[in-house]
Amino acid sequence: MQPGALSKALKSGAIWGFIVLELIFFSVAGSYMSLSDTAFMDWENMLLLLKQSAPIGIIAMGMTIVMVNGNIDLSVGATYAIAAIVLLDSMTWPIFAGLGDWVIPVAWLLALTVGTALGALNGLIVWKTGVDAFIVTLGSMLGYRGIVFMFNGENPTSHLNWTLVDLAEAEFLGLATASWFLLAVTGVVWFLMTRTVHGRNAYAIGDNRDAAVNAGIRVGPHMMINFAIIGFLAALSAVVFYSESGSVNPNDGQLYELWVITAVVLGGTKITGGAGSVIGTFGGVIAIQLLRKGLGHIGADTSTVNLVIGLILIAVLFLDRQLNVKGKEELKV
Amino acid sequence: MATVSKQQIGSVLAKQGILIAFAVFIVAFTFANSKFLTVDNVFSVVRSSAILGVMALGVTFVVISGNLDLSVGSMMSFSTIVVLDLHDKIGPFLAIPAMFAMTLALGALIGFLVGYLKLNSLIVTLGMLSAIHGLTLTYSGGKNMDIADKEGTWFSVFGQGSALGIPVPILIFLLLAAFLGLVLSKTPFGRKVYAVGGNGTAATFSGIRRARTVFFCYIISSACVATAGLIQASRSLGSQNTVGQGLELEVLAAVILGGASLMGGSGTIFKTVIGVLILGFIQNGLLLLGLQFYVQFVVTWIIIILAVWLDIAAKRGKLMSPIA
Amino acid sequence: ASHSETMKIGITQNNVGVDSYQTTYEQAFIAAAEANDMVETVVLDAGGDVARQIAQMEDLIQQDVDAIIIWPTNGEAVIPAVRKASQADIPVIVTNSNIAEQGQDFIASFSGPDNITQGSRSAEIMCDKFKEMGIESEARVVQISGQPGYTTAIERAKGFEDRLPEVCPDVTLVETQPGDWNREKSQQVMEAFLVKYDDIDGVYAGDDNMGVGALNAAKAAGRDGIIFVGATNFSVGYEAMEAGDYWGSIYQSPVDDAEAALQTAIDVLEGKEVPKLNYFDTPKITQENMSEFSKPVF
Amino acid sequence: MTDAKPILRLDGIVKTFPGVRALDGVSFSVMPGEVHALMGENGAGKSTLMKVLGGIHQPDEGAIYMGDDRVVMAGPLEAKAKGIVFIHQELSLAEELSVAENIYLGELPRKSFGRVDWTTLTDKTNAILKKLNVGFDANTLVGDLSIANQQMVEIARALTVDAKAVIFDEPTASLTDAEKSVLFDVISDLQADGVGIIYISHRMEEIFKITDRITVLRDGQYQGTVNTRETNEESVTQLMIGRKLDLTRNASHHEIGDVALEVRNLSCGKLYKDISFEVRRGEVVGFYGLVGAGRTEIAETLFGLRDPSAGQIFLDGQEVRISSPADAITRGISLVPEDRKGQGLVLGMNCRDNMTLPQVDDLKAGPFVAEGAEIAIFDQYRDQLDIRTPSWRQQVGNLSGGNQQKIVIGKWLSMHPSLLIVDEPTRGIDVGSKSEIHKLLRALAAKGYAVMVISSEMPEVLHVSDRIVAMYSGRIMRTFTSDEVTEDNLIQAISGIKADQAA
Ligand SMILES: Nc1ncnc2c1ncn2[C@@H]1O[C@H](COP(=O)(O)OP(=O)(O)OP(=O)(O)O)[C@@H](O)[C@H]1O
Ligand SMILES: Nc1ncnc2c1ncn2[C@@H]1O[C@H](COP(=O)(O)OP(=O)(O)OP(=O)(O)O)[C@@H](O)[C@H]1O
Ligand SMILES: [Mg+2]
Ligand SMILES: [Mg+2]
Questions:
Q1: Distance, CA D148 to ligand 2 centroid (Å)?
Q2: Where does the ABC transporter domain lie (chain D) (predicted)?
């Protein structure tokens, strides 16, 4: 074991420890406070947890890449809504009328393409103008939301296709479609970030951009690709979720960016870039979903839920910090 | 000496990029709608921007110190609800200081967490956004808060009164901006804020108490939020729990539009004021043109990016970023 | 299932805390459930997020409650989740705003106000007043609608926009902008309207909160004689009517709303006949008849 | 060699920055197999010239030739593709990545599906590291390495590609002698392969040890090129600074006063143990040791940046607990830190504000900062330390490395401390200014300051110190007076050999 390995293991373990704490707490509290007869840690409930984590989780994987790369994307919620509209609306377009249920893959593809393009547009602006990603995506968070409303005014866009719903509700080996997508995305992004040149370069750029530039890494295209990936994943999340629900409100996906970022940061990704892990993000997503689910399970009311979620976020951060202090002789800066 | 004059133009542009963007924008709207540049309208815009603006003044300190404050919207709801509730219970004379004390206590808590415990400000203030909202709901029982005797209270002066022909919210905004502008640019404390945001380690090595500096930035921010809450409460003499919801991002947009860097260490109060006005005039201008709100969204997007782009392009002397 | 013992009823609300109507609804619901020994409830709030609401539906199904009440965040997106509940033999009662046609087969009943009718009634109130003032041939109206995307906002706007030309064909609706159910936002929108239009005779707001925001703007600008009509009579609106500043609204009580939903659920579980569409009445309220109504508590 | 064609030729390069003409028609060439030194004062334009060559800056005028072809270095990527390797003056590493990934940054070996070929990467890296004879392996995180070892990682990059020319911009600034000799071996290997080497350094002894020719710049202007064998330190210095330099050891003797600082049995975890020494007024005490010997940590403890785990500190005979730098400053202690970019400067701030930062609370006119007084302070130290900057308004980040260091020194001198601690004070500083700083340190001592000088340069320690504390691995091995110290016994002491064990 290399020096520091233990503290690192503890560090990446913090989120898992927190998840275990949550499970214990809600199981115990649930047995007193909940009127449900089924235990919180019921296997079915845990499978449901995985499924319910999918919408945020899939986007969070993309956010991990973008944040490791040293950027941030606040527009994912709006991209998610646009992709959902494209998905549902395109199924009713007259040109696809002859396709029957084959319109489904076409609509999926369209939605994913649009998401990817919107992500790439953010990336292109960041690259070419040099404006900070936070500002660019803060702007497009508004702009993309405006585009959402242009589609259908303030009305929801709906198309309930029961074939699609059945497909989305299907289970394979006991796991729902959404769960499979979440697991697959986690796997692929993990591979991308730890095993490929592109992923390692993303770390290098986020860690020390000047060094990456000096080493001849093409920083701009890398950033654009990563924005395209998060756009794709936001669209994928929409595709997975709206295939099942069939209708999108123009303000759906609002505040998703904040939840996603919270999950990613809880999972140990540095806000300034250069460090972070996909597995950690997975833990962060599960931790948040568990918290929401558990608070509902024990019957907390709205104001309590808000209060508790807020305080717990801060508490996790505090614990994480305590685990990371190197000792008394540490430099006091 | 052609190069020199070009350089001079460049450096003027670099310093005033955002102002020029602002001017261009005002002229364009004035041509588009004759009502735009009337005294009434300007007052109306500045008055309704005052609340956002006062909050942005405080957030400017936080951002320059290298941190974020996403809790301002939720905290503003809190101050508004509290002062309205206390107005009828203990009277405005006591309600105002009591509300300030409570809001400052929240600011102190955040300042303690971010400054002294060195927790990441994005997550802390995100957490506080949610927690303070919960607190407000608990405090109000989720109900709207209204002053019973709306006609008979002098409390309305902060939001509705005017002095010397100028609406009081505008006066408060401008006076506070002048005061905080001096604090930031001329006092030792202001210097320390820049140093801490620019390089916290170097600031510590220079004997600056970084934690304390950050702490006071959040105190200033919460004092501004309390002031904004006061104006808000006084303006409508009644309020919902969600009155400030979502303002945090608008405030941040204004601060950034003014040219403060999220990395910390740069930005000025004057530029933030310009940023606030740009946002206010965009919203108002588009409304006057009768555009749908979603067109406003798209236009705001484009203007934010163009303004910031112009600003940094002028600074680096090149339109396109040098990133390969 | 036998209901000799307690009934477990789960509710997932749209977005508690966004306005006092929903909060009062939640409190009234809890109070009504506590008053009834036979009922136990799980009260959940979707925070306006469809995904969270669907997850809550799944959780309630998984917890095997006896009935689910849903205040939909989106009248169509929740249909598959409602179908799941009905497939699990859990009756679903929709409250406050209905779900779409395709989902009707899966629900036991809808209980709530009729928002389209509310919109039409507001149009009638406005029109009647114009006629009384004799300006029905040239009056100009602006509309401040609720949060874009919400069924309630859309239905009320639709009811108003459809009905107004029927009753007052010469009144023009010059512009509509959303006020997001938010008093402050509405005030800002109204300020711009006032600058832009020299002649505004009437303002229709999607609820009284926004209506009062608009009223504040008009007062600050010193523009008198504008007729304000809202919906969901909040206590601020009621007070403004008392003061003579605000003309009329639609009286709708969240307590009635909540109690009706709970009672419908109990009736369904007890096997009683319930109508599919269980509207509770939301009458017109104006300065003239307001003494017949008690001041809203929210 | 004289007949050979240069591999690389820069012709009439001009480069201006706002307010600064950094290069004014500079020409320069490198032969294959040659080590060509580039010298000049701080801010003379050396790094800028190399950045032009490396594609980081585009010249305003002038041309670059490789062989007979005119080339354009549009960016670092092109420069690299053309066989130019640039080892930067400031560390340019990604701390969260491994040594191997850093060495091959931008050119990780690939397998199918864009995967990183880890086996090849590790093998190649370990081969290079073996050549460099360092104590870490390919998978170590760069952030866990000391500054010196990080510098070695930078140097390792020179060995990864088939370089035509390698630029070393002050590679030895933070290296110890052992590492330096490894570096020189690497350079002579490259030389043997016909690679052209450009070597920037302020250390004369290195220049005369390894280079073939020397080109000198002054204020962005070309001063001439000489064969190293045909010149000497004195004339090079004269070329650089335009005057002669007095390099004699400062023998000024003055009264040594009372004990200003006494440290008794001080320990700080594993960083250092059982440290005892004293520094008197009027005395300069040098601290010499290998990197990692714990000298910086002692300085940081005295400056309130670390809590000692045991032991006592006395200032003027009074036991004190120094809780923070602010506390240390009020007790009259100044610390010029080791890492100027990270710890010394706020790069985005202007020169004046950086210089007066520690005393900003004291320079007041009413509630405001007295800007006039600040400018006066800045002007005083700009003149005294010969800081090259167009005005106090310039951002410190735009100054050359050496001038940045002078700002840090000025900042702490202007505090008029009673105990001045300087950690590697002349890292990256040109010969002229270095001797000025040495003189200054002596003069401060003469004024009654107590001065601690931490340095990894033996000549420097020998030159300025009245006494020398030799450290090894967190412990004091021996304390020498200036009469008894020799290079040999000093080297023995810092290598962990006790005085009584020595021959
Ligand atoms: N990006 C920049 N913007 C403005 N001025 C710059 C910039 N980079 C360098 N300069 C200026 O150009 C001049 C030459 O700097 P350079 O870094 O080349 O010096 P140097 O010879 O390497 O000095 P040192 O020995 O101190 O490293 C200096 O006056 C410096 O302030
Ligand atoms: N045992 C060690 N293993 C790894 N790194 C170490 C070790 N000891 C010290 N370091 C690191 O090496 C660097 C230099 O150490 P330190 O500051 O103690 O040396 P120093 O004697 O001050 O030498 P110098 O100032 O000349 O570099 C520091 O960054 C420190 O963290
Ligand atoms: Mg240099
Ligand atoms: Mg050191």
A1: 9
A2: 8-244, 254-498
Q: Do B324 and A265 touch (CB under 8 A)?
A: no
**Residue B311 is assigned to a structural domain of this protein:** no
Cα(B254)–Cα(B151) distance, rounded to whole angstroms? 34
Q: Which domain holds residue D358?
A: 343-416
pLDDT score for D327: 94
Chain C adjacent subunits, 3+ CB pairs under 8 A: A, B
Hey, which residues 262-301 in chain B have their CB within 8 Å of chain D?
265-266
Q: Which of D21, D398, D404, D408 to mutate to test the pocket of ligand 1 (most atoms within 8 A of CB)?
A: D398
Q: Is pLDDT at B221 greater than 80 in this prediction? A: yes
The answer to whether residue D2 is domain-embedded is: no
Which helix (H) or strand (E) segment holds residue D62: the answer is strand D61-66
Q: Is residue D13 within 8 Å of D52, Cβ to Cβ?
A: yes
Residue found by looking up tokens 């973008």 in the block: A66
- Lowest-pLDDT range, A166-170, A263-267, D114-118, D305-309? A166-170
On whether residue D408 sits in a domain, the answer given is yes
Instruction: Give the mean pLDDT of B53-71.
Output: 95
Identify the residue among D360, D364, D394 best suited for mutation to test binding to B, counting B beta carbons within 10 A and taking the highest.
D360
Establish if B290 belongs to a structural domain.
Answer: no
User: Any long-range contacts for D112-119 (C-beta under 8 Å, 24+ apart)?
Assistant: D113/A196, D114/A196, D114/A197, D114/A198, D115/A195, D115/A196, D115/A197, D116/A195, D116/A196, D116/A197, D116/A200
Q: Which tokens in the block code for residue D357?
A: 């930062």
Helix (H, G, I), strand (E, B) or coil at D39: strand
Q: Give the residue from D399, D416, D433 where a domain finishes.
A: D416
Q: Across residues B57-64, what is the average pLDDT?
A: 97
Query: How many domains are there within chain B?
Result: 1
Task: For chains B and C, tell me whether 3 or more CB atom pairs sit within 8 A of each other.
Answer: yes
Asked whether residue B12 carries a pLDDT value surpassing 60, the answer given is no
The pLDDT, as a whole number, for residue B13 is: 54
ipTM given for this complex: 0.81
Q: Could you tell me the CA-to-CA distances from D475 to A327, D40, D275, D290 in Å, in that order?
A: 20, 38, 6, 12
pLDDT in tens, B260-277: 887 889 899 999 999 899
Angle made by CA atoms B52, B19, A136, in degrees to the nearest 5? 65
Give the residues of chain A that fall short of pLDDT 70.
Answer: 1-13, 33-39, 324-329
- pLDDT exceeds 90 at position B189: yes
8 A C-beta contact, residue D61 and residue D68: no
Q: Whose CA is nearest to atom 13 of ligand 2?
A: D146
- Domain total in chain A: 1
Residues 118-157 in A contacting B (C-alpha not used; CB under 8 Å): 125, 127-132, 134-136, 138-150
Flag whether pLDDT at C219 surpasses 50.
Answer: yes
- Percent of chain D residues topping a pLDDT of 70: 95
| Cβ atoms C146, C153 nearer than 8 A | yes
Count other C-beta atoms under 10 Å from residue B199's C-beta.
Answer: 25
Q: How many helices (H) and strands (E) does chain C have?
A: 9, 12
Ligand 1, pocket residues at CB < 6 Å: D 17, 20, 22, 40, 42-48, 89, 388, 398-403, 428, 430
Among A192, A214, A225, A229, the residue to mutate for chain D (most D Cβ within 10 A): A214
Nearest to A328 among D113, D115, D309 (CB): D309
What pLDDT, in 10s, does the model give residues B95-128? Answer: 999 999 999 999 999 999 999 999 989 889 988 9
Q: Which domain holds residue B40?
A: 35-251
| Number of structural domains found in chain D | 3
Residue C4: its pLDDT value, please? 54
Mean pLDDT score, C140-149: 88
| Vertex C276: Cα angle to C273 and C281 (nearest 5) | 100
CATH number at residue D157: 3.40.50.300
Predicted confidence (pLDDT) at residue C2 exceeds the cutoff of 50: no
